[in-house]
Amino acid sequence: MNSPGPIAGRTPEKTLLRLILREFGSRPDMRLFRNNVGVAVYPDGSRVAYGLCPGSADLIGWRIVAVAGHRIAQFVAIEVKGETAPVRPTQRNFLERVTEAGGVAVLARSLDDVREALRC
After folding, report:
1. What is the 3-state secondary structure (H, E, C) of the chain?
2. CA pair distance 4, 13, nearest whole angstrom
3. What local confidence, expressed as pLDDT, does residue 1 receive?
4. Distance between CA 13 and CA 87 in Å, rounded?
């Protein structure tokens, strides 16, 4: 089944995620990875958590920046949300911790949100 396209100027989350990966994931100075987060429950009742950590962003990776004449990898976290989709407290906390540590944290409701955060 095809995913729906933009409706009344809105881009569905899955479509926006793909657009972000297409535009930024192919840049030579950046790497982004899909980070699925959740818990798998097996028939025997056992549970296994997956993803970087609870609340971690949909896309994680790095961009190369110059600092004091050296190239370093700066952590990038992009939480992709629809126009009105709520941000869970664990997601907001993750983005805040990334920012406090010197990384780039983006709540992306559009491609322009990512462009602005990365100043592209």
Report:
1. CCCCCCECCECCHHHHHHHHHHHHCCCCCEEEEECCCEEEECCCCCEEEECCCCCCCCEEEEEEEEECCEEEEEEEEEEECCCCCCCCHHHHHHHHHHHHCCCEEEEECCHHHHHHHHCC
2. 10
3. 40
4. 13
pLDDT score recorded for residue 3:
42
What mean pLDDT is reported for the chain?
Answer: 91
What domains are defined for the chain? 13-118 (3.40.1350.10)
CA atoms in the 13 A half-sphere facing the CB of 46: 2
Which residue would you say has higher pLDDT here, 12 or 108?
A: 108
